[in-house]
Specification:
Chains: A mainly alpha, B mainly alpha, C alpha/beta
Shape of chain B: globular
Strand order of the largest sheet of chain C: 6-7-8-3-9-10-12-11
Structural class of chain B: mainly alpha
Structural class of chain C: alpha/beta
Largest sheet of chain B: none
Number of strands of chain B: 0
Oligomer: heterotrimer
Radius of gyration of chain B: 24 Å
Distance between the termini of chain B: 16 Å
Order of helices and strands of chain C: EEEHEEHEHHHHHEHEHEEHHEE
Radius of gyration of chain C: 21 Å
Number of helices of chain C: 11
Number of strands of chain C: 12
Helix content of chain B: over 70%
Shape of chain C: globular
Helix content of chain C: 25-40%
Distance between the termini of chain C: 44 Å
Order of helices and strands of chain B: HHHHHHHHHHHHHH
Number of helices of chain B: 14
Strand content of chain C: 15-25%
Strand content of chain B: under 5%
Chain lengths: 301, 341, 332
């Protein structure tokens, strides 16, 4: 096929065909590892459970104020697949409802920390070597010097224990990591030829940041975001374990584990199932995140 | 630059970071809604007593003056008194910190030894059944948080099969060794009491394993992929081509560059372990700094919170410096250029 | 004693990857005699480096050799265990890589690497340290590296690209006996350094009587340095001839296309590339692997890989156009 023929080939020119084609390629790369598909299934399950909790949970009313002292501390049975807790609430239903807040927290935290983090990281990376870089990165260093969980704990502890406050606390502890990641990426990308070309042709800084540098970070960013949903859930559970975050009687995975730990080993199910549920969430988003990384990685020669 | 100047530079940066952290903590502490003096004395204290305490605590001065005075106190080792225990925070820390230090120390040893060994062996036998089993378990290890492992391990090895104890630092009723460092393991050895040593260690094992499993799995994974990556590099092929025996190539030329990624990650993980330690300490009834930290946080014990966070800040910064030095020793590019590419 | 140093017979190499199997080498035949300078020419991805890696037995784990033999000094090295291999390698092979940065271990000094190479290049017994240092310094000096003492204590990161490549050559100088493999030794270097490095290689080869395998995609390099040339395409040696002959009388359509692609300073007109791309190794064409791109392809080309046929004067070609010896079927 001569060169001229290739250029006028119509199928690849059609933007719809191109999008469909790249989607197909992404799916192909994603699905090559069956574990990623498992992750996707798990993630979909979690999302569906969270959204349709009222319809799916066997005892939806147990997620709110509910007591049934007669039915308390029941081991797993056919009526209560995961048993009941100390005041008779069905554990399975509460776990399903707790997914709601977990996902909500993850979304809010990411919605706040990702834009702030990437913006600061891009700016610091692009203006590398100037005072902008130094200021931003030193502040980030201070935040990073403490592991996010501890920082989130400290901040949440200073505030009133509500879901909103715990989300704020986690977001503040989370954005510096996005700054750090974007910074490193921006540093290496800014020296690429296409960025220099854009600078030479007079492109504005905003343009360069958002149309040249950012798209090349997108695969790392999206992967990290997928993985982070799991980790934020984990930190959220740690906060509620201590009593910060969502307050009882609303269900939260960490609170349930804390209650359950008191009753070990006799009523082991009260602690074990929420723990397994957290595992499920983290595992699902981890596998999914790995798949995203495969799907977005450039093809090897 | 040589190793010396590199270390100095890192120290200088760390002090700067420590300052920054102190400012951050101080600001957060002062954001707390409510009057610290009132909280210290309780709701029934008369107003003039509260006012006097406020003046004593310099709460009426401008913010940066407060910071300066506070910094002065801290530099002299005075962290104030805890609202909860009514004792100097310094004393609380001295009592509880060694326990957590012991725990995290043992955890760190597990992570480093088991994580890297598994990774190296896994890389050596890549794609065999051993490798696949290790990879599967390390994946499970990573995604299961430490407190979940704590629950599982406690159920299995503590209650179902009574192998390990599940509560406290020593068996109830046993008198701890005389305090030199505060760490029961070290102190009992220094006192020559092997029985106490054994008791202390046994109490540490389950919580340490629970804390170590996720980072250990991560370390194994990273070591393995790092070695696999380096395996295909030209310089390894070159060594082999020139006839250098495989065992030397693996143990020397393959291992050294491959250790750098896992060690960097382990630093972060060990620091994060302090964070997860509180949950594990609570679960195992282990009286450590983490558990103390949580209590004071819930009680809004400002002085204590600040003390604990600063203490942890110092620990992390020290940890980071140590790791940076190790990495700089391993990788000359870091100490010569300040970066690795 | 036979004058054949290296004899690769019908070598197949496959790589296990996610989507299937990459059948890269498809029956490679390749010989090098003692003291000979042989070139391998081919585009990126045709399997040149893979062949060398197979020869050195440094193929990655996911590679397998379903068929073929490699004889070095008469020994079939595919059948040796790792200790025998180490022995064999030590006594005679050296290799220079395309990218000098990745060819040197970044976390060890030049000296450390050089000493180990010298130590083990003569089997397993060790020489006294004094000896090693002297040999190392001498090799560095011969590679035109100044301040050799300081070089021993330097790390690769402290050297420039040209210096690193010369260090690699110094490795070869310190140990070379029978065979030096140079894989695109000048591709990543500045033009001014290229000449120096090339001269060093030629010097080394001529002074010590070392055989040379020069892998390159530069025809100019080949004409300057080698006596005999193999042209490689998609895992096969499709043509082989003495260097002088291949330029005058290229036979295989691919070789002809290659030579026609070289831009000329005089004569006007643009150089023509060869349309198409190298085949997908997962699903290679059943017959001749060049057939899909070949304008002369005809019936037998899609059935089976053509065997390599001698067409006189040490000239071999694997193409159905020349099935009856010298006769070019196109002219019939």
């Amino acid at each position: 096929m001569k060169t001229e023929e290739m250029l006028t080939s119509s199928s690849l020119e059609n933007p719809w065909v191109r999008t469909l084609d790249s989607l197909k390629k992404i799916w192909y790369k994603f699905s090559r590892n069956w574990l990623s598909v498992v992750g996707l299934v798990m993630v979909i399950m979690i999302v569906l459970l969270a959204v349709f909790a009222s319809y799916v949970a066997p005892y939806p009313q147990h997620s709110g104020k509910f007591v049934d002292f007669k039915g308390k501390n029941q081991p797993p049975s056919w009526q209560h697949l995961m048993g009941t807790d100390t005041i008779g609430r069905d554990i399975l239903s509460r776990i399903i409802f707790s997914f709601r807040n977990a996902l909500l927290m993850a979304m809010v935290v990411l919605a706040v920390s990702v834009p702030i983090g990437t913006l600061t990281g891009l700016t610091a990376g692009y203006y590398s070597g100037t005072w902008v870089d130094t200021v931003i990165m030193r502040v980030t260093d201070v935040f990073i010097s403490v592991p996010p969980i501890i920082l989130a704990l400290s901040i949440a502890a200073m505030l009133k224990p509500t879901l909103m406050n715990s989300m704020i606390a986690v977001s503040v502890s989370w954005w510096p990591w996005y700054t750090r990641m974007t910074y490193t990426l921006a540093l290496s990308i800014r020296n690429e030829y296409y960025v220099q070309a854009a600078e030479l042709t007079g492109a504005s800084t905003l343009y360069i940041l958002f149309r040249e540098i950012l798209p090349n970070c997108s695969s790392s960013l999206l992967t990290k975001m997928a993985l982070d949903v799991g980790w934020v859930t984990l930190v959220g559970a740690a906060l509620s374990f201590v009593g910060l975050g969502e307050q009882p009687p609303k269900p939260a995975l960490g609170t349930m584990i804390a209650e359950g730990v008191e009753r070990m080993p006799a009523q082991w199910w009260i602690a074990l199932f929420p723990a397994l549920a957290i595992m499920f969430v983290v595992l699902g988003f981890n596998l999914f995140g790995d798949g995203i990384r495969d799907a977005l990685s450039p093809e090897e020669a | 630059m040589r190793l010396g100047p590199f270390i100095l530079r890192r120290l200088a940066i760390s002090i700067f970071v420590l300052f920054g952290l102190s400012i951050l903590i101080f600001l957060i502490a002062r954001i707390v809604p409510g009057d610290p003096a009132r909280m210290a004395l309780g709701p029934r204290a008369p107003v003039d007593v509260v006012e006097r305490l406020r003046q004593q605590m310099h709460l009426d001065r401008p913010l940066f003056q407060q910071y300066g005075l506070w910094l002065w106190e801290v530099a002299h080792g005075n962290l104030g008194n805890s609202l909860v225990t009514r004792r100097p925070v310094k004393q609380d820390i001295r009592e509880f910190f060694p326990a957590t230090l012991e725990l995290v120390g043992l955890t760190a040893i597990f992570i480093a030894v088991a994580g890297i060994s598994l990774g190296v062996i896994s890389a050596r036998y890549a794609n065999t059944w051993f490798d696949n089993v290790v990879r599967l378990f390390s994946y499970l290890g990573i995604v299961t948080p430490a407190f979940a492992w704590a629950v599982i391990l406690m159920l299995l090895f503590g209650f179902t099969w009574h192998i390990f104890p599940t509560y406290g630092r020593l068996t109830t009723g046993i008198i701890p060794p005389s305090t030199i460092t505060g760490m029961y393991t070290v102190d009992s050895l220094l006192n020559g009491r092997l029985d106490l040593f054994w008791d202390a260690v046994v109490h540490l094992i389950l919580p340490a394993i629970a804390l170590a499993l996720p980072p250990m799995s991560q370390a194994a994974r990273i070591t393995r992929s790092s070695m696999a990556d380096n395996q295909n590099k030209d310089h390894i092929a070159s060594m082999i081509a020139y006839g250098v025996p495989n065992r030397i190539v693996t143990r020397k030329y393959l291992l050294k560059p491959s250790l750098i990624p896992p060690i960097t990650v382990m630093a972060l993980d060990i620091a994060a372990t302090f964070g997860y330690a509180f949950m594990v300490e609570k679960i195992f009834g282990f009286p450590g700094l983490a558990r103390y930290g949580i209590q004071v946080m819930l009680n809004k014990d400002v002085n204590a919170i600040v003390g604990v966070v600063m203490m942890l800040g110092v620990v992390f910064i020290t940890l980071n410096i140590v790791v940076d030095i190790i990495v700089a020793y391993l990788d000359p590019r870091i100490r010569l250029l300040g970066r690795s590419v | 004693m036979s004058k054949t140093l290296l004899d690769i017979k019908n070598l197949h190499v496959w790589f296990k990857v996610y989507g299937g199997v990459l059948k890269v080498l498809n029956g490679v035949n390749f010989t090098v005699n003692f003291g000979e300078k042989v070139g391998i020419v081919g585009e990126t991805g045709c399997g040149k480096t893979t062949t060398m890696k197979a020869l050195l037995r440094v193929l990655p784990n996911l590679a397998l050799i379903p068929e073929g033999d490699i004889f070095v000094r008469g020994n079939n090295i595919l059948k040796l265990n790792s200790r025998e291999l180490a022995d064999l390698r030590g006594r005679g092979l050296s290799m220079i890589f395309q990218d000098p940065t990745s060819a040197l271990n970044p976390v060890f000094t030049i000296g450390q690497q050089l000493f180990d190479i010298i130590q083990y290049s003569s089997g397993s017994s060790g020489r006294k340290v004094k000896d090693k240092k002297k040999i190392a310094l001498r090799a560095l000096h011969e590679a035109r590296l100044s301040d050799a003492e300081r070089m021993l204590n330097s790390y690769p990161i402290q050297l420039s690209g040209g210096m690193r490549q010369r260090v690699c050559i110094a490795f070869a100088i310190a140990t070379a006996r029978d065979l030096l493999i140079a894989d695109e030794p000048t591709t990543n270097l500045d033009v001014t350094i290229q000449d120096q490095v090339l001269r060093l290689i030629k010097n080394l080869v001529e002074k010590k009587g070392t055989s040379l395998i020069l892998i390159t995609h530069s025809l100019g390099l080949v004409s300057e340095t080698t006596e005999r040339v193999y042209v490689m395409y998609a895992g096969n040696m499709i043509e082989m001839a003495p260097t002088s002959l291949i330029f005058k009388k290229p036979l295989h359509p691919y070789t002809q296309g290659l030579l026609a692609s070289v831009p000329r300073l005089s004569g006007g007109g643009f150089a023509e590339g060869i349309p198409g791309r190298i085949p997908d190794y997962r699903n290679p064409p059943p017959g001749c692997r060049f057939a899909p791109r070949c304008q002369y392809a005809f019936e037998p080309c899609t059935k089976a890989m053509p065997p390599s046929i001698e067409v006189g004067d040490g000239h071999q070609v694997a193409c159905y156009l020349y099935q009856n010896g010298q006769e070019d079927r196109r002219n019939a």
